[in-house]
Structure formats: C-alpha cells, structure tokens
Amino acid sequence: xxxxxxxxxxxxxxxxxxxxxxxxxxxxxxxxxxxxxxxxxxxxxxxxxxxxxxxxxxxxxxxxxxxxxxxxxxxxxxxxxxxxxxxxxxxxxxxxxxxxxxxxxxxxxxxxxxxxxxxxxxxxxxxxxxxxxxxxxxxxxxxxxxxxxxxxxxxxxxxxxxxxxxxxxxxxxxxxxxxxxxxxxxxxxxxxxxxxxxxxxxxxxxxxxxxxxxxxxxxxxxxxxxxxxxxxxxxxxxxx
Length: 240
Description:
By secondary structure, the protein is an all-alpha fold. Helices cover 45% and strands 0% of the residues. It comes from Cyclostephanos tholiformis.
C-alpha cells in the first residue's frame, strides 16, 4: 500500500525528472535516457518529472541504477496487483465467484457476506492463510529465481516456472503468459505493451484505493458515494 502511494505521488515510477543536484552523476546516461523515454511515452504531458529526486538517490547501499530498477519494478508489480484487485472487486461485488471450495477445509466462497472486504472477513483463517501463503510463494519465487531486476535483470519480468532449477517438480504453465501468446511478439510490440500496462496499472491503483477509501470514509470519493457500501472493518489488518 505504501509503495503504491509512493508510485502515485511521483507520477511515474519509471519516469523521474533530471535535477541540477551533483548526485546526477551517479546515474548512468543509459538509465536516465531509458527513464526519459518511458516517461514521454507513458505521459506525453507530464513527461520526465521527479519532485522527490528519486532518479539520483540510492537505497540500502545499492547503486543508483539498482535503485531505479527497484522503483520501476515496484510500480509495475503494484500496478499488476491493483489491476487484479480492481477487476476482482467489481466481479465479487456482483456476486460472481468460483463454484468450488476455496480452501482445503472445504470452505465455500462467502459471496453472500457483502462487499469484497466483508467477503474476506467471512473467510475461515485456513482460507486466508492459504491465499496469503500462495502470494508469499509467488513473491519469494520472483526474488529467488532468474536474474534479479536489481542485478541486471529486467524490471517487471517474472521468472518462468518452466525453466526449472528451484521448484523440485515440473510446472506446465508460467505465471506470465502461460499459453505463450506474446513470446513471438516483436520488441517494439512488447515495449508498447509495457507502456499500456504502466498506465493501466496507475489508473487501477487509483481505482482500488478509491473503492476502499469510500467504503471506509463515506463521501471521501464523491463519485462513488452510494455505489459502494460502508465497511466498518479494518482493511489493513487481514486477520482482525
């Protein structure tokens, strides 16, 4: 959540503005040029904008290039999560759900509990842990497999399950592009797809935060007043 808000505040996690600061010399020209290019394509009006001077800073003792890669990867990942959350919120709000149990203990989907946050509250602890641990596995695998995005890898690229090496048994499909629809696309097509994904992810972050904000504080998002129901629970405490 905090990283999502940070991404929104800087306007472009992949696009930072140049600063007259002496720290600019830390970043390579290639990294800055890449940021400028992505920024201008994703937002031709705002372009290269960095009020927090993140393009020239470092975190956790890493290089400037690694820091930029971390911020770019963070925005892409949070955008993907937000897109899934936004679509999932709408689907669940309309009573659409899987017909089979969602936990090993046979827990059915609690679609009748109300809004998506209330549906989460209605899940058994076992079902919640099952979801959280699966997401934790995906996060662990993204950090442990392949070339790390802060060490020369590509920000936003999720390691392939089918490459093997870490998982001790075969996995027939990958998380990203499981059916191989995009593997033969040109580099230009993939670059355009990244720009679309960035913009859709940014909008989705605003959208899902808008849903949750209006549910917790009625009237905070005027356009959603009366559309989403009030929620008395605690969105930041998954086991409350």
